[in-house]
Specification:
With 666 residues, this protein is α/β, with parallel strands linked by helices. The strands form 4 sheets. It has a 7-stranded parallel beta sheet with strand order 11-12-10-13-14-9-15, sandwiched between helices. A 6-stranded parallel beta sheet has the order 16-21-20-17-19-18, with helices on both faces. The radius of gyration is 31 Å and the shape is globular. The chain starts with 11 loop residues before the first helix and ends with a helix. Bound molecules: adenosine-5'-diphosphate (ADP) and magnesium ion (MG).
Length: 666
C-alpha cells in the first residue's frame, strides 16, 4: 500500500497538516469522511443571500472577456441570463472553456453570489444544464492551511490511484446478501455523491463495515477469553470466604450475594475474569469488591484497587482498614500526593509481596510498579479510566483477574459495544431503609423558595451540597453560575450563622482533602463545589443538594450527583435549578432508577455525557453511531459471529487479516 506522501499533490507541508488532523495513512485519508454535506440548491437569484453559495442554470449572454495575468493565471468575465434575471459571472483559470462559452450556450454556474455587485464568483462551470440534480458538496473537518478543496483533491487522488488497494472488510457472502457496493465504489460515492439516495445507500454499507469489524473483534475476544485457560486458577473455599460476612454490620442484599458468588466462580475458573459490576450509587458495590479482595487474599494473591480521584481512593483505604481490622491483611494507599520516599517503600514492599492490598489512583498502573503476585485488579467508577490505561495494566506480564465497578449503568446498547467482551453482574436491589430522594426542578426566579428549603435543613443541623458548573468566570462562561459567585450569594444568605466552603478540581489535592474532611466532620454546613463530589464521597448527614444550571449536565451525571445525598436516615432533597430544558430535567423528579435514567440520557443525548472524553475516543467510530445505527450494529454482531465461528472460511484472506489485526493490537 502506498504511503500518504505518495499521494499526488501531498507535499511535505500538506503532509504535516494532514498529520495534524490525525490523517497518517492513505487509509486514514480516504476514510476522512465528510461530517456533513452542503446541498447547493439551484436557486432563484432573488432568494439567495449575499455571499451565499448558488448553483444556477442559464445562458451565456455576452462574449466572455478573458484577462491573462502573470504566472499563467487568467480570469474570464461574462454576462449570464438566468430565469430570475441577469447576473455577471467571473471565473479564474478556466481560459480553456472559452470556446464552449459562446453566446446563447446553456451552462450551469456554481459559485458565490455578491448581491451588491450582482456578480457570481464561480468556482465551477458545467457546460449544459443539469436540470433536476442538486449538487451535493462534502464538507470536511479541516485545519488552518488545509482547505476543504485541498482535502477533497487529495482524497480523490488517493482513490484514483490506490482505491483498489484499500482493504474491504466485508466478506463476499455478506456483500452479496445485502447487495452492497464494493469498498472503492462506496468511498467514491461518499466523497462525491451524485444523489442523496446513492449517498444513503453507501453510508449504510460503510457503517456496516465499521461495525462488522468492531463486532468481529469483540466476538473474538469473548470467545478467546472463554476458551483459553489464560487466567489464574486457584482453590477457593466459598464457605471460608463467606464466613467473613459475619463481621459486616449489615445483611447483604440478594444481589450483592449473587455478585459475590459470580466473582468467586470467576476467580476459581482458569479463564481470566473480565467482569463489570454495575449498580446504582449507594447500591453497595464496595463491599462486594472487598469480599472479592478477601477471597483473593485467602488464595495467596495481592489485590490492587484503583479509584478515579484521590478523595475516593483515600475513602476506600480507610474503609478497607476498618473492614479488615480483625485480619492480618496489609493495606497501603498510593496516590499522586504520596511522597517519593513513601512511594518507593510501597513499591519495594509490593514487589516483595509484603503488601496484600494496595489502593490508589492511576499511580498504581505506572510502569515502575511491580507486584510480587498480583491476582486481582479492581477499578472503581471504571468509565473514567481509558482503555489504554487498562491495557497498560494488563500488559505487566501478569494476567490478574479484573473487576470493573460502575455506578453509571451502561445502557444495553453500549454494553454491547464497549463491554461486549465482559461479563456483567448487576446490583439492582437497594440496601434496606434507603429512601427516595425528593427531587424538584425550579427556575432561577424561584430561588427564594429554594433558600427557604435550605434554611429548614440547616436548622435541622443537616448539611447541604451546592453544585455549580464552573469554578470562576471565564471566556465562555456566559450566564453560568460559578463556585465563587455562589459562595458570595450563600454567604449573603446564611453566612452569619453557618459555615460555607468551596471545593473544586483545580485546588491542590491536600487542600481538597482538608475541606472534604471538614465537611465529613460537620465543620462545614454548606459545601459549594463543581462536580468533583460526583463520585463516591460518603457524608450521611448531608441531606440536601442544590444544583445550579442543571440543564448543563446529563441525567446520569445529575443522578450521580444526587446520589451524594440520601445516605443517612433522614429524608433527603435535591433541587435542580434551570430556566431551560425543564422537560428533560423533570424525568429526575419521578425516576430514581439509574438504569432507566441512563437509557433516557442515552436516548436524549447520545453517549457524550456518559463517559469521559477519553472513553468516547476509545470507541470513536468514523462513520457509525452506536445510538443511531443500533439496528445495523445488531446485524453486524450476528453476521460477524457467524463468520467467526464458521470454520470453512478459515483460509479466507479477509478472516486471516482481521484476526491478525486483533492479535497485533492486544
Ligand atoms: P456504591 O455502590 O455507590 O459504591 P457503597 O458500596 O459505597 O455504594 O455503599 C453505600 C453505603 O451503603 C455504604 O455506607 C455501605 O456501607 C452501605 N451498605 C452497603 N450494602 C449494604 C446493605 N446490604 N445493607 C445496608 N447498608 C449497606
Ligand atoms: Mg462506590
Amino acid at each position: 500500500m502506498a504511503e500518504l506522501k505518495d499521494v499526488k499533490g501531498v507535499g511535505p507541508r500538506a503532509l504535516t497538516l494532514l498529520n495534524k488532523i490525525n490523517i497518517n495513512t492513505v487509509d486514514d485519508l480516504v476514510t476522512h469522511y465528510p461530517f456533513r454535506y452542503e446541498i447547493l440548491r439551484r436557486d432563484n437569484l432573488q432568494e439567495v443571500g449575499d455571499g451565499e453559495k448558488i448553483i444556477i442554470d442559464g445562458k451565456v449572454e455576452s462574449v466572455p472577456m478573458l484577462m491573462r495575468f502573470k504566472a499563467g493565471l487568467n480570469k474570464m468575465n461574462f454576462r449570464f441570463a438566468t430565469p430570475s434575471g441577469l447576473v455577471g459571472v467571473s471565473i479564474f483559470n478556466r481560459a480553456f472553456l472559452k470556446n464552449q462559452l459562446g453566446v446563447g450556450s446553456g451552462i450551469t454556474v456554481i459559485g458565490k453570489l455578491d448581491k451588491k455587485k450582482n456578480i457570481i464568483t464561480a468556482s465551477d462551470i458545467k457546460i449544459g444544464t443539469l436540470t433536476d440534480k442538486a449538487k451535493i458538496e462534502p464538507v470536511y473537518h479541516c485545519t488552518s492551511g488545509l482547505t476543504n478543496k485541498n482535502l477533497s483533491n487529495y482524497i480523490n487522488m488517493a482513490l484514483l490511484y490506490y482505491g483498489k488497494d484499500i482493504d474491504d472488510n466485508i466478506p463476499m457472502e455478506y456483500q452479496e446478501k445485502y447487495n452492497f457496493l464494493n469498498k472503492k465504489t462506496a468511498l467514491n460515492v461518499i466523497h462525491n455523491p451524485s444523489t442523496m439516495e446513492k449517498l444513503k445507500e453507501v453510508t449504510i454499507r460503510l457503517k456496516y463495515e465499521e461495525l462488522f469489524e468492531f463486532m468481529f473483534k469483540i466476538n473474538y475476544l469473548k470467545e478467546q477469553n472463554k476458551k483459553k485457560n489464560n487466567g489464574l486458577s486457584r482453590e477457593i473455599n466459598k464457605e471460608d470466604v463467606m464466613k467473613f460476612t459475619k463481621n459486616i454490620p449489615f445483611t447483604l442484599t440478594n444481589d450483592q450475594l449473587k455478585a459475590i458468588d459470580e466473582i468467586l466462580d470467576d476467580l476459581v475458573a482458569p479463564h481470566r475474569m473480565n467482569r463489570l459490576l454495575q449498580g446504582d450509587v449507594g447500591s453497595g458495590k464496595t463491599v462486594v469488591s472487598f469480599m472479592a479482595m478477601y477471597a483473593n487474599y485467602l488464595s495467596g494473591y495481592q489485590s490492587a484497587l484503583m479509584a478515579p480521584t484521590e478523595i475516593l481512593a483515600t475513602q476506600h483505604y480507610l474503609n478497607l482498614v476498618e473492614f479488615f481490622k480483625k485480619t492480618k491483611i496489609k493495606i497501603e494507599l498510593l496516590t499522586g500526593s504520596t511522597t517519593k520516599k513513601v512511594k518507593n517503600e510501597i513499591y519495594d514492599k509490593l514487589s516483595k509481596g509484603e503488601i496484600d492490598i494496595v489502593v490508589g489512583t492511576h499511580a498504581l498502573i505506572q510502569d515502575d510498579v511491580t507486584y510480587s503476585n498480583l491476582g486481582l485488579v479492581i477499578t472503581d467508577e471504571q468509565h473514567r479510566f481509558g482503555v489504554n490505561q487498562r491495557a497498560n495494566l494488563q500488559n505487566k506480564g501478569i494476567k490478574p483477574d479484573i473487576l470493573y465497578m460502575s455506578a453509571t449503568p451502561i445502557p444495553r446498547t453500549y454494553a454491547l459495544t464497549i463491554y461486549g467482551d465482559m461479563d456483567v453482574s448487576n446490583i439492582k436491589e437497594r440496601p434496606k431503609g434507603r429512601q427516595k430522594i425528593d427531587t424538584y426542578v425550579k427556575r432561577n426566579d424561584e430561588i427564594k423558595y429554594v433558600l427557604e428549603m435550605m434554611y429548614e435543613e440547616l436548622k435541622a443541623k443537616h448539611q447541604i451540597y451546592v453544585i455549580a458548573p464552573l469554578i470562576e468566570e471565564g471566556e465562555n462562561s456566559g450566564d453560568l453560575k460559578t463556585v465563587n459567585e455562589l459562595k458570595d450569594r450563600m454567604k449573603e444568605a446564611f453566612g452569619s450563622h453557618y459555615t460555607i466552603d468551596i471545593v473544586h478540581g483545580k485546588m491542590a489535592n491536600g487542600a481538597k482533602d482538608t475541606i472534604m474532611e471538614k465537611f465529613k466532620n460537620n465543620d462545614v454546613n454548606i459545601l459549594i463545589s463543581t462536580t468533583v463530589v460526583e463520585v463516591g464521597v460518603d457524608v450521611p448527614n448531608a441531606t440536601m443538594m442544590v444544583i445550579f444550571d442543571a440543564d448543563r449536565f446529563g441525567l446520569s451525571t445529575l443522578h450521580q450527583l444526587r446520589g451524594r445525598v440520601g445516605r443517612g436516615v433522614s429524608k433527603s432533597k435535591c433541587v435542580l435549578i434551570s430556566d431551560s430544558d425543564a422537560e428533560r430535567l423533570k424525568i429526575m423528579e419521578h425516576e430514581d432508577d439509574g438504569f432507566v435514567i441512563s437509557e433516557e440520557d442515552f436516548k436524549l443525548r447520545g453517549h457524550g455525557d456518559l463517559f469521559g472524553t477519553k472513553q468516547s475516543g476509545d470507541m470513536a467510530f468514523k462513520i457509525a453511531s452506536v445510538r443511531n445505527d443500533y439496528k445495523i450494529l445488531l446485524q453486524a454482531k450476528k453476521d460477524s459471529r457467524e463468520y467467526l465461528i464458521n470454520k470453512e472460511n478459515n483460509a479466507d484472506p479477509l478472516k486471516i487479516r482481521l484476526l491478525n489485526t486483533i492479535n497485533k493490537a492486544s
